[in-house]
Write a structure and sequence with these properties.
Blueprint (H helix, E strand, L loop, with lengths): L2 H4 L10 H14 L10 H22 L1 H11 L13 H19 L3 H26 L7 H34 L1
Helix pairs in contact: 2-3, 3-4, 5-6, 5-7, 6-7
């Protein structure tokens, strides 16, 4: 059972936070282990498992990045060990940023680092805007449109993961200064 089904919600990149929280509290009460203290060990184990599932569902459905990854997995768009080819243009742009960051390791320059930070922040913001545009209304699309949307979302998701690694490098360089 997927987390959306568990919460009786449609698969959505933007579930209603109030409904997610409402389901979490309702199921927390329903599956609270203390209410099953006099039940058999099997029933207690089942309730504990459901309580754990509820906590995991809430954490995932409340976090946009985790939810995005989860939906892509749920829809079969992400597979373990998959070799995905990001667009060459994006890779070239990121290679230039990486080269600039490597240069800054040996020749620190606060102004250059600030410029790279701004560039990466702008790229990230543009991607976030594109993701929002793609994912708004996803649940109302027919299956063919959803399939196309998921392909585009996957591409942006993987680009953002790449960008996160670059941000990690920036943070390390910033900490050294």
């Amino acid at each position: 059972m997927d987390y959306f089904s568990f919460y009786d919600l449609p698969v959505s990149f933007h579930p209603d936070p109030a409904k997610v929280k409402q389901q979490f509290y309702a199921l927390s009460k329903k599956y609270h282990p203390d209410f099953y203290i006099n039940e058999s060990e099997e029933k207690q184990a089942e309730v504990l498992e459901l309580s754990t599932l509820n906590n995991k569902a809430y954490q995932l459905l409340s976090d946009p990045q985790k939810r995005l990854h989860y939906i892509l997995e749920l829809k079969g768009m992400l597979t373990e060990g998959e070799q995905y080819n990001l667009p060459q243009e994006f890779l070239m742009e990121m290679m230039e940023v990486n080269e600039e960051l490597m240069d800054l390791q040996f020749d620190p320059d606060a102004a250059k680092l600030a410029a790279i930070k701004a560039q990466v922040a702008e790229i990230s913001s543009t991607m976030d805007t594109m993701l929002d545009r793609l994912t708004d209304g996803f649940e109302g699309q027919d299956s063919a449109a959803q399939e196309e949307t998921l392909k585009e979302v996957k591409d942006l998701y993987l680009r953002k993961k790449y960008l996160t690694r670059i941000n990690d490098s920036i943070v390390k360089l910033d900490a050294v200064r």
